[in-house]
């Protein structure tokens, strides 16, 4: 099943939450891989704001940390897929809790951000 291009709310920047997995994109990449292996081009669909360079860097970091596995499939059509390792899969429950916490404290987080940026949200 294809990834939903709108699976991430553009109004909810990943850098708003003080609870972060890896870099800016890592948590969203983990969520994209939750239902199974994905190709690079599939990951770019819901991660509209990511550059190819940033996605490559995040994938390499997640792979280095043992959270995802990269598999090259040879054949008439060569392809590469990324999937969560058991270690990466173990992040899903804590991430769900962190997301619930951020939803519960959304207004407080926005107010704090606004106060620190002189009244500008974002």
UniProtKB/TrEMBL annotation:
InterPro entries in UniProt: HTH_HxlR, WH-like_DNA-bd_sf, WH_DNA-bd_sf
Superkingdom to which the source organism belongs: Bacteria
A GO term, aspect molecular function: DNA binding
SUPFAM superfamilies membership: Winged helix' DNA-binding domain
Domain HTH hxlR-type: 12-110
Alphabetic keyword roster: DNA-binding, Transcription, Transcription regulation
Protein name as annotated: HxlR family transcriptional regulator
One family name in Pfam for this protein: HxlR
């Amino acid at each position: 099943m294809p990834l939903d291009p709108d699976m991430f709310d553009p109004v909810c920047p990943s850098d708003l939450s003080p609870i972060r997995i890896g870099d800016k994109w890592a948590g969203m990449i983990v969520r994209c891989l939750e239902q199974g292996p994905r190709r690079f081009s599939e990951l770019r669909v819901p991660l509209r704001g990511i550059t190819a360079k940033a996605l490559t860097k995040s994938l390499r970091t997640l792979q280095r940390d043992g959270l995802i596995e990269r598999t090259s499939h040879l054949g008439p059509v060569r392809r590469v897929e990324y999937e969560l390792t058991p270690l990466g899969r173990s992040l899903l429950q804590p991430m769900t809790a962190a997301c619930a916490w951020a939803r519960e404290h959304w207004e407080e987080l926005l107010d704090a951000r606004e106060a620190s940026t002189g009244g500008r949200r974002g």
